Amino acid sequence: MHRRLPILLLAAWATLCVPGSALAADPVFPTGSRIGLTPVGDLQPSTRFPGFEDIAHGVQIAILELPPPAAAEIERSIFAKQQVGLTEVKRESFPFESGIGVLITGLGEANSVKVHKWFLTASGLGNSPAILLKVEVPEAASAVYSDAAIRKMLATVTLRAPPIEEQLAMLPFKIKDLAGFRMAKVIPHEGAILIDGAGDDMAKNPYAIISAGRGGPQNPDDRARFARELLISAPLRDLVVTLAEPMRIDGRPGYEVRATATGPDGKPVALVQWLRFSGGGFLRIIGAVPKERWDQYFPRFRAMRDGIGVE
Question: Which of these three, 159, 192, 212, is where a domain ends?
Answer without folding.
Answer: 159
